[in-house]
Design a protein that fits this description.
The protein is α/β, with parallel strands linked by helices. Helix content is 26%, strand content 22%. It has 5 helices and 7 strands, in the order βααβββαβαβαβ. Helix 5 links the parallel strand 6 and strand 7. It is globular and about 45 Å long. The chain starts with a strand and ends with a strand.
Length: 196
């Protein structure tokens, strides 16, 4: 069984001090980096993939995802604009930590790394599904930000792809703590293992 690690949206705008900060985001970034640098990781995962939220600069060009008056459910403040500091990886993570970088959300809302408009940064014709299939990946662990949105949606879509899925909850941060139990139940109902 070949396994991949998917690191979801650990970006400056999603950690403390960012435009859409998640409490504990900086600590999550540090802990993921420690994991990536460990010898155990090299033995456990065949592939390390990151997703990045990657939006157009004009809030009117993002399918209603970015709003001047966000509701924090379907619309959000300006965040993760392509090629800005806010869209960069949160320290201490860097692009070379990953085998593939998946960009998502350019021109339309995309919570999942499996979204139709998500693509590999160096080869825009490659989807996450194609990468995993080519590498014969059958199982994924998912970490990152935010547990209740992009991590959860990526996990749900990975499950739909027929993959064995685990969410390493201790390596995630959450936007809305009130949603945490609901999201956890949704994931476990889909036989996605959530590990604290």
């Amino acid at each position: 069984m070949k396994k991949a690690l998917i690191v979801v949206d650990v970006q400056n705008d999603f950690v403390e001090g960012g435009s859409l900060e998640c409490k504990g985001g900086k600590e999550v970034a540090k802990n993921i980096k420690r994991m990536l640098d460990s010898d155990k990781l090299k033995n456990e995962y065949s592939l390390i993939i990151s997703t990045q939220d990657w939006h157009k600069g004009d809030r009117h060009s993002n399918g209603g995802h970015i709003s001047a008056s966000p509701d924090y459910i379907d619309t959000w403040p300006t965040h993760c604009i392509a090629n800005t500091k806010g869209a960069d990886f949160a320290e201490p993570l860097i692009a070379t930590d990953f085998d593939h970088l998946m960009l998502k959300g350019y021109g339309s809302p995309s919570y999942s790394g499996f979204s139709k408009n998500a693509y590999e940064k160096e080869n825009k014709s490659l989807s996450l599904q194609e990468i995993l299939k080519t590498e014969n990946i059958t199982s994924v662990d998912i970490v990152g930000i935010a547990f209740d949105y992009c991590v959860a949606q990526t996990a749900k879509d990975a499950s739909k792809e027929g993959l064995n899925v685990r969410v390493l909850k201790y390596l995630t941060a959450t936007i809305n703590q009130e949603n945490e139990n609901l999201i956890r139940n949704e994931l476990t109902d889909l036989e996605i293992e959530v590990i604290d």
